[in-house]
Give the backbone structure.
Amino acid sequence: QIIKKTEILEFVNSHLNMDDIGGLENLKRWLRKRNKSWLESAQKYGLPAPKGVLITGVPGCGKSLISKAISAMWQLPLLRLDIGKIFSGIVGSSEENMRKAVQTAEAIAPSILWIDEIEKGFSGLNSSGDGGTASRIFGHFLTWMQEKEKPVFVIATANNISSLPTELLRKGRFDEIFFVDLPTHRERVEIFKVHLQKRLKDPNVTGDFQINDNNLHQLAGLTEGFVGAEIEQVVINGLFEAFYEERSVTLSDFEKICKQFIPLSVTQAEQIKGIRDWA
Ligand code: ATP
């Protein structure tokens, strides 16, 4: 069955490997103990039917990346649901949209349903709620999560879970909730390694620069507070310095960018400080 991209549901084709992701060790370890057949045969072992995981953390820390890598590792189709659009009222009725999304995931089960930025759909709700559409959909979703008969693994990703209903977060709803924090020094070393290895292919561009422990630690030391997406940007901008001057890249190119770059975490901290000072 071919699933075309719709406004709310997108079939994501991924060949990402777990090794393409630096850090996120707890989550990787948890996943490595599980595989595709866990989805189908957990109950034979007297285990509860797999439900899914909720992954939360700052933007750009690899939540989308790992969702794609799970699908590639388990060789299961991945459907990304844009939950914000379900409620936007632009594409059909919200309840019908949600029902179709779930049905599609079940039709191709075993499968993975990735609900990206789940807070955009379910912020501030509860299932008994006000009887409004959003509360009803949330209630149906919880029931489906609890009782689904087809092996559909749900990955919910969120930048901020503080506004999510506690019913969604309580024990037993997801198999596990993972918090992805800003990468540590060691994790930044890994992330730099991933992106430098991915991009430095041409010996003329690489020149004398080496992806060795010394250089990786040097760069990691200059990037405290950077998320993975920002580290990738440092690598790209560093390479651009070399490209602009038509020469091979050097450690100084990357160091220069690290020193110029203000990561979002710092900007946010400054904003909060600014508001505090003002108040
Ligand atoms: P958002 O909440 O904004 O969607 P996210 O947490 O889902 O962010 P990703 O989309 O997974 O972040 O990351 C954006 C890009 O940053 C990735 O495509 C990847 O190139 C890089 N990146 C982020 N985290 C990592 C990581 N841990 N290892 C390697 N690359 C990373």
Q: What stands out?
A: Residues 30 and 55 are 13 Å apart (CA to CA). The chain has a mean pLDDT of 88.
